[in-house]
Fold:
Amino acid sequence: MPELPEVQTIVNGLIRGDESHPSLQGSWIRGIEILWMKTIQYPGPDEFINRLLNQQILLIERRGKFIIIRSRENQLLIHLRMSGDLFLRPRTLEFAKHDRLILMLENGYDLVFNDPRKFGRVWLVGDESEVLGNLGPEPFDSDLNETVFYEKLSKKKKQIKPLLLDQTFLAGLGNIYSDEALFLAGIHPLTRADQISQEKAGKLLSSIRKVLLEGIQNHGASIDWVYRGGEFQTLFRVYRRTGLSCPTCGDEIQRILVGQRSTHFCPHCQPNSH
DNA sequence: CACGAGACCTGTTCGC
DNA sequence: TGCGAACAGGTCTCGT
Structure:
């Protein structure tokens, strides 16, 4: 599911709090319930509980698609993968379907990791670079400009779509936002990265930033039964719009498979360059 | 090393 | 209505 805008939306909600729950920041962890053991990627369950119990949550951040929850000595890293969700819920007697990990807070709320497909994972580490060390730059990193991005692209022979999904190249894009960005930039998804001109590279970078910002401003995308309150799905230009008309030229949007992932594009606005 | 297929999971939707 | 196939926002591993 969640790509950068959805993860950012979740982080923003946890930091801010709202009418239904307080901020997560400052909360003390007084109980831990692991409901699906594989959720804990590292360390083992006993050490996980020992090191997290009675810790205070100080900061919540995002890096790529990871949520980072900082206490004094440890970082809890959470990756939602396809169907995970993280939210605060007033303490209840019974857990909900698909709850995988619960941190019980002193203020009467539970921090709930719920994940129907069980792909999501969490790590508890003292040095986050053990897990995040191979991530590429953040899309909004000010050091990433047209020239730098062009040079990064020119070193890769890979097709641009799978390259944008590669988290070691750029952190945060997934299937939705890469299709949307390539459409805005007018680049065919199968174009080799090193065939993209500097001008097109600049256009691609600004398109990536534009669609991510749109996603964040609309609180992410909510599709299928995985509804999280976002509205960006109503603004999709190509993603899951196979057979519908291109918002720019009216041609039919096509769907192809690239690296086993559905890929949507407009054959007229994103001409095949090879 | 690069690439593609398969694995990990459950739930919904589609086609016959 | 029923049933199997296809598909889903991600990433890792294995084989060629």
